[in-house]
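Tutorial handout. Part one gives the primary structure; part two gives the three-dimensional structure as tokens.
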Amino acid sequence: MADSGLRRLTNRRWKVGVGILLTVILIVVGGVAVYFSLPHHGTSASVQSVANDPHVSISKADGVTVLSPTNGTSTVGLVFYPGARVAPDAYYASLAPLVRRSNVTVFVPKMPFNVALLDVGAAGEVRSRYPGIRTWFVGGHSLGGVAACRYASSHDVRGLVQFASYCDTNVSERPIDVLSVTGSRDTVLNREAYRESRNHLPRNATFREIDGMNHTEFGSYRGQRGDSQATISYDVAHRRLADILVPWLSKSVTAAA
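Part two.
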């Protein structure tokens, strides 16, 4: 009788323990899901500034935000992967100069749970829907740049653009142009991984650093945990970024013609 009672007590405690563990797991999983489902959005002022730009048209289709030039047909496209927990609209202001000045159409897909690594093939889906674009680039910010590099490692693209990011896949032998831009005040970027991965890129890769720029200024959002205070404004950062990106991409397109 005593042994039977002890077994029942042990079984009951085991069931309670399992129930508590499952509850904790559900709470953690639910918390993580909620955390990643609430991305950083672009400031209302930055979004409105692009919406008011007569040279840039904003549209959305099948989960993809499209920034396209209004002054004619574009044959060059950039699929841009957002950083983790960053919404597409956070990149309107930083990418609009490419549309306005180089007649490039920019596509920013919304990622599952706002994590680009969960949909590395997003660029392929975009490309299949826009056959009029003849020259394709992929790029991304932070973790989005890692995803873009993985896509470029096995697909035919003209070039790869990385903002505050790095390649965890070797593309050094790929026939692509690469632009890597960092900010001197960025304390979110894993600098060790960035340095170690430089040999993953082609020898002719272009590296630029913008003095005073932090991680969030590659977009137009606020509240990035672990970032340092920038010493230049968002407007200045975006202007300097455009002065690097626009001529680099234009040169790459010309060289491919």
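Part three, for discussion. Confidence is low (pLDDT under 50) at residues 21-37. The radius of gyration is 22 Å.
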